[in-house]
Write the structure tokens for this entry.
Amino acid sequence: MSEVKIKAESRTEFGKGAARRIRRAGLVPAVLYGHGSAPVHVTLPGHELMLALKTSNALFDVDLGDRSELAIPKQVQRDPIKGFLEHVDLLIVKRGEKVVVEVPVTLVGEAGPGSLVALEHTTLSVETEATHIPSEIQVSIEGVAVGTQILAKDIVLPAGTAMQLDAETLIVNIAAAPTAEQVEGELAEAGAAEAAEAAEAPAAEEGGETAAEGQ
């Protein structure tokens, strides 16, 4: 994992109004904390930060002017509609230190014929060195037969990385893909159920109107 050098500026304004002004200036509010030190409130360049966060568990070399700190993203807040960065929490780490992080799972290859692949966990919780966090964990499904289940204990992890999930946790399930006849049958059943509901609705409305007239 390469370090992303990024320059931070001290932040003294707080609140929603200040945050909006900071973002209009192309910056992102952030807080740097960890190892017993007082939280440091800073702003970071928005474009550089956005590019760096495209890599899972990016390692930042944060330039604070009088010193620099290594840090990893702990929490990233984005606008739920527009997706822009609203705020970032960075956790200070030291070289050689172990941290527990979530690492994305990438499936490699194609399962056997007639199979349906279900990825039950898109990320894996692992303990690894803060300066050597893997960007992904690859799981091969090449030629895997229907009925196969890949558990946490079956995953091959990079050296120095330890799984934090229960060994029997299901990660990938290889089931039989439904046949065309099965799909057609399910669609027919769904259509019949909708038709029955539609037929019941007018009858219920008519009964309600009759009762109202009687009153």
